Every structure is written in structure tokens, then in C-alpha cells.
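Quick sanity check, BTB domain-containing protein:
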Amino acid sequence: MLCYLYTNQIDWTNDNNGMDETTDENISFTIEIYCIADRYLLTDLRQRAKNRIFEELTVNNVAEIMFRLVPKYEDLKEPILSFMAENFEEVCNSKGFKDVLANPNDYTYYNRIMSEVLSQHFKIQKARLNK
């Protein structure tokens, strides 16, 4: 973070031997940067982190991000909701989604978010059937 403040650059690899692959550790680092940038009103860094979150979305991490971050950061909602709804079958089989299902009380807006995801998923399915 300090490096960013002085250079306006950030190393998204989180010292992962220079590897730039999507891992749980990388997405956690990106989310941490996003939250810090939001807190300290670093709009450019916040936007970069937001874009990076969208790039790093996978069926394995989207559920955790959706249920943990979206209630606090509404601007993340639409792209994450769309990704989750479009890939819902795969997401349902992921460890991340199963972890959310195992502990729904850990997520304040669990019911509302599930309702939105399912509603979006069914709209997508209906549109596919009508083609």
C-alpha cells in the first residue's frame, strides 16, 4: 500500500514469486486492497482493485465474494450477480458455495442474496429456453 502511495503502482501478485495466477490468496489480497482503498478514499486504487476482482472471479470464489462483500459494496453487485447466475450450476458444486451453505448465519443478507441470485438465474434459463 505504501508503495502505491509513492509510485501509483501496485504489485497484484502479493509477492507470489511473480506469478500472476488466480488463486484464493490473490483474490483475498485484491479484496483487502479494495477495502483499504475504499476506506481511505483512494478512488483510482479502488477502481483498479474492483476491476481486478472482476478479472479474478471464478466459480470457486464467487459465492464467498457475493455473500461477504456485496452487502457492503453495492457497486460490486451487478457483475458478480451476473457471473454467479450465469454459472450457477458450476457454482453450486464449488467448495466456496458449499462453505456458504454450511454457514448461512455467517452472512447477514444470505436470504436476500440467494433470492436475487436464483431470480437472475431463472431469468437466464428462461431466456435460453425461449431462443
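Posting the structure with no commentary besides this: Residues 16-20 have pLDDT under 50 and may be disordered.
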